[in-house]
Write a structure and sequence with these properties.
Layout: E1 36-38, E2 41-43, H1 49-77, H2 84-110, H3 133-140, H4 154-165, E3 173-177, H5 183-191, E4 196-201, H6 204-215, E5 220-225, E6 236-241, E7 254-258, E8 271-277, H7 287-297, E9 298-308, H8 324-333, E10 336-348, E11 358-369, H9 383-386, H10 389-392, H11 410-417, H12 425-432, H13 442-459
Parallel strand pairs: 3-4, 3-8, 4-7, 8-9
Antiparallel strand pairs: 1-2, 5-6, 9-11, 10-11
Helix pairs in contact: 1-2, 4-5, 12-13
Bound molecules: S-adenosylmethionine.
C-alpha cells in the first residue's frame, strides 16, 4: 500500500475531486483514491496517481526526443565540410539544448518524478510540458534587461493592467487558476499583501519552476535558443533566474497546487478572489463552464479578475469562440456584476533575444459575485424569459417554478420531476442520460424540453 503523506497546504480547503471528502494527505479516506506530491506541491487530479504516471511518461518522451535532437546535431558536427563559423553555431546550439534538457529533467527529478515510458500512453495525444517554456523566461528572466516596449518591464505592466481594473483591491483568499510559472500570482500576492494565495496549474514543469523560485528560494538556469538567425541578436543565451525578494516571508502564505481547472479539489465558496490570466482561451473547454467553476469556488461577494486575449485554439468549435460581450453576458447570467473593463493592445512575449514578438489585444475585467440570486422574470417574449441564465449556463440551478406543458411524454415528466430548485441542467442531464437511447445527448434533449416549455409559456402569457 502507498504511504500516506501529509500535504503542506493550508487547512480546510482541499477536497478529493472524486468524492469531496476533505483531504489532508495523499490518501482519500472517503473513496480511497491516491494522490501525490511534486516538489512539496499537492497534486490532486481525479485520475490520482495516473497523473504522475502520465507526467513520467511525458518526461520519458522529452528525454527521447531531446536525445535524438542532440544526436542529430552531433552528427552534423562530424561533417568534414562544416566551416568554423557553422561549427561554432552548432556547438552553441548543442550546449543550449543539452543544458535545457538537463535543467528540465533535474527539476522534475528533484520534484520526485522519474522518466518512465508507459505503453498505455503510446497512442495517446499528450501535451509537452515544455509548451510554455518561454513563459518561465518571461516571468523570471527577461525583465533583467531593459525593454523598449515597457516603461518598467513586462511583468510590471501585467500587474498594473490588473490593478487598473481592480480598484481598492482586497484579495482575501486568492486563487490564481492556470498560474503558469507563477509570476503574476506572486506579484499580486506581495503587492497586495494577500493573507493567502494559491497558484494552481496542470503543468509539472511550470509548477516545479514556480515552487523552486518562490518557495525553495533556489535559482534556476535555463537557456533560450532560436534556430533562425537574426542580425544583431545572439541566438542563444543561458539565463540565471534568481528567487524574487521576500522581505516579509510572504512565501509562507503562497502555495502552489497541481490541479485541473475542470476538477478543482477545493471547497465550494472557499475563495474571496479568483484570477484568470491568459487562461480563458487556452483550456480547450467552454468558457461558460469555466465561469461556472469560478462562480462555484467564489464566496458570495467575491471577485473574479480576468486578463488576457481571446485567441481561442484552432480546434475549438466556432460557436464556443465567444466575444468579450458574450463573456460579460454569461458572467451576468452566472450572478456576476462586471464593474470595470479595459481593452489594451500590448507587446507580448518580447524576448531580448528575439526581434519578433506578438502584438495582442488584452481584455481585462473585474466582476463581483452578487450575494443574492437575481429575481425571476415573468413569462414573456423577451430574451430574459426565453433564454434565462440557467438554460444557457448549464451549471446554474433550475428555479422551482411551475413549468406549464403537456406531460404526455415520459421523458418530459421525468425531467420535470427532477427540478427541485437546486439541480442544474447539467446535473439533470446526467441523471437522465442512461434512460435515453445510445447516441442521444441528454443535455441537448433537456435543453430542448425547457426551451420549448418556455416558448409555450411565453405564447400563452397574458
Ligand atoms: C497561456 S498560459 C498563462 C499562464 C499565466 N497565467 C500567465 O498569465 O502567464 C496558460 C496556463 O494555463 C494552464 N492550463 C491550461 N489548461 C489547464 C487546466 N485544464 N487546468 C489547469 N491549468 C491549465 C497551462 O498549463 C498554462 O500554465
Amino acid at each position: 500500500m502507498t504511504q500516506k503523506c501529509e500535504f503542506n497546504f493550508p487547512a480546510d480547503l482541499l477536497i478529493c475531486p472524486i468524492c469531496a471528502t476533505e483531504l489532508t494527505h495523499t490518501h482519500c479516506d472517503g473513496c480511497q483514491n491516491e494522490y501525490f506530491i511534486l516538489a512539496d506541491i499537492p497534486c490532486v487530479f481525479p485520475s490520482g496517481l495516473q497523473q504522475k504516471v502520465l507526467w513520467e511518461h511525458q518526461m520519458a518522451m522529452m528525454a527521447a526526443q531531446g536525445g535524438e535532437a542532440l544526436a542529430s546535431l552531433d552528427n552534423m558536427l562530424q561533417g568534414y565540410d562544416v566551416s568554423a563559423l557553422t561549427r561554432d553555431r552548432l556547438e552553441i546550439a548543442y550546449a543550449a539544448m543539452a543544458q535545457s534538457l538537463k535543467s528540465i529533467m533535474t527539476l522534475l527529478e528533484e520534484g520526485g518524478l522519474r522518466a518512465k515510458r508507459d505503453a498505455r500512453f503510446d497512442q495517446a495525444e499528450i501535451d509537452n510540458p515544455t509548451e510554455y517554456y518561454h513563459h518561465i523566461l518571461r516571468d523570471w528572466a527577461w525583465d533583467n534587461e531593459k525593454s523598449q516596449y515597457f516603461e518598467t518591464h513586462a511583468n510590471d505592466a501585467n500587474l498594473q493592467r490588473v490593478l487598473a481594473v481592480w480598484q481598492n483591491p482586497k484579495p482575501g483568499k486568492m486563487l490564481v487558476l492556470g498560474a503558469g510559472a507563477g509570476r503574476l500570482s506572486w506579484d499580486l500576492h506581495t503587492h497586495l499583501d494577500a493573507p493567502l494565495t494559491l497558484a494552481s496549474d496542470i503543468n509539472p514543469f511550470l509548477l516545479a519552476s514556480a515552487q523552486r523560485l518562490i518557495q525553495e528560494r533556489r535559482a534556476i538556469s535555463l537557456p533560450e535558443l532560436y534556430t533562425y538567425p537574426q542580425i544583431g541578436y545572439s541566438f542563444a543565451k543561458s539565463w540565471n533566474m534568481v528567487p524574487p525578494t521576500d522581505e516579509h516571508t510572504a512565501r509562507k502564505r503562497w502555495f502552489a497546487l497541481g490541479s485541473d481547472v475542470w476538477n478543482m479539489p477545493l471547497k465550494e465558496a472557499s475563495m474571496d478572489t479568483i484570477v484568470t490570466s491568459w487562461l480563458l482561451d487556452v483550456t480547450g473547454g467552454d468558457v461558460k463552464d469555466l465561469i461556472s467553476v469560478i462562480a462555484y469556488l467564489l464566496k458570495p461577494g467575491g471577485r473574479w479578475i480576468n486578463t488576457g486575449p481571446l485567441l481561442y485554439s484552432r480546434n475549438l468549435s466556432f460557436d464556443k469562440k465567444y466575444s468579450a460581450e458574450e463573456i460579460i453576458d454569461f458572467a451576468c447570467m452566472a450572478g456576476f456584476d462586471v464593474q470595470m473593463q479595459s481593452v489594451d493592445e500590448i507587446a507580448h512575449m518580447v524576448s531580448p533575444l528575439n526581434a519578433r514578438f506578438h502584438h495582442e489585444q488584452i481584455f481585462s475585467f473585474n466582476a463581483y459575485k452578487q450575494p443574492e440570486p437575481q429575481a425571476l422574470p415573468k413569462p414573456s417574449n423577451t430574451p430574459q424569459w426565453l433564454t434565462p441564465g440557467w438554460l444557457v449556463m448549464h451549471h446554474l440551478p433550475i428555479p422551482q417554478i411551475t413549468f406549464e406543458c403537456e406531460r404526455g411524454h415520459e421523458f418530459i415528466t421525468r425531467v420535470l420531476e427532477l427540478v427541485d430548485g437546486q439541480r442544474s441542467l447539467y446535473l439533470i442531464s446526467q441523471l437522465v442520460q442512461s434512460s435515453l437511447p445510445e447516441g442521444v445527448d441528454a443535455k441537448e434533449a433537456v435543453v430542448a424540453v425547457f426551451g420549448q416549455i418556455l416558448e409555450g409559456m411565453a405564447r400563452s402569457a397574458p
